[in-house]
Amino acid sequence: MTVRAFLIPKRALPALLALVAITAGCRIDMHIQPYYRTMAKSDFFGDERSARLPVEGTVARGDLHEDAYFYTGKIGSNPGGFMPFPVTAEVLDRGRERFNINCTPCHGRVGDGGGFIPTRGFKRPPSYHIERLRKAPIGYFFDVMTNGYGVMPEYGTQVAPRDRWCIAAYIRALQLSQNATSADVPTGQKVPSAPPQFRDIGNGATLPQIALPTAAAAEGEPK
Ligand code: HEC
Fold first, then answer.
1. The whole model's pTM is what?
2. d(Cα 129, Cα 124) in Å, to the nearest integer?
3. pLDDT at residue 28 above 60?
4. Which of 28, 146, 187, 215 has an alpha carbon 20 to 30 Å from 168's alpha carbon atom?
């Protein structure tokens, strides 16, 4: 094969140029598209706004939020005292996962306020195990997450409503766990082992460290 084979015959040149011109035109068409950027001006409407207001009395798909309690945790202006859906093991698992991601950096794994961020100068949150928060209705926790509280930022935009309820249920479980006694164990059921003793419970950035079993703790182990 010689180099000559790649040369374009002179007669084909106009057709080739026309092809280039046509395809270049297509490319520009795709780049300049007939749409308005957000808040851009338009000459088409009398008020010169390109965006139209929603038609009165209509709701965008998925925005109805008919179940006000599910989205606010409130009945009127007071926090409600019940979950809007049944609490299953799956709900608590989800709550634990979301809590450990979103809340432990400040509140700590067990909700005592011993997270990592307060050790770097941010206000230390109150423990969930104080009398006032143990008595607070579950809807209160949902509301604090949704709107924030004091210096705590809101999580309504980052954590979906159902996940916020899962976290609220998990906080209730944490509160139970930190205040449980052997009297809370149903009669006839044995406590399988002594609870682990932590050297360090972890703070969200570090994992919990379990202390080596002592003679006293080992007594509770099943034989
Ligand atoms: C950046 C740190 C930070 C994160 C993350 C955080 N909080 Fe807080 N939280 C705080 C602080 C600080 C306070 C105390 C605010 C104050 O008193 O001004 C607080 C207070 C609270 C309170 C108690 C309100 C009261 O009545 O005293 C609850 C409940 C709570 N947070 C829940 C949560 C939940 C649930 C999450 C996760 C979705 C979360 N927080 C994530 C810092 C945080």
1. 0.71
2. 14
3. yes
4. 187
Ligand 1 atom nearest to CA at 104? 5
Q: Is the CB of 167 under 6 A from ligand 1?
A: yes
Ligand 1 centroid to Cα of residue 199, in Å, is: 25
Alpha-carbon span 147 to 74, nearest angstrom = 12
Probe residue for ligand 1, chosen from 152, 157, 175, 203 as the CB with the greatest number of ligand atoms within 8 Å:
152
Helix axis angle, 161-179 to 89-102, nearest 10°: 90
What the chain holds in terms of domains, given with CATH numbers, is 78-181+202-207 (1.10.760.10)
Residue of the CA atom closest to atom 19 of ligand 1: 125
Alpha-carbon distance 135 to 129, whole Å?
A: 10
Give every CB contact of residue 103 below 8 A, 6+ residues apart in sequence: 111, 167
Closest listed residue to residue 68, CA positions, set 58, 78, 53, 55: 78
pLDDT above 70 coverage of the chain, percent: 87
In this structure, the number of other CB atoms found within 10 A of the CB of residue 3 comes to 6
SS3 call for 134: helix
- How close is the Cα of 33 to the center of ligand 1, in Å? 46
Cβ atoms 73, 79 nearer than 8 A: yes
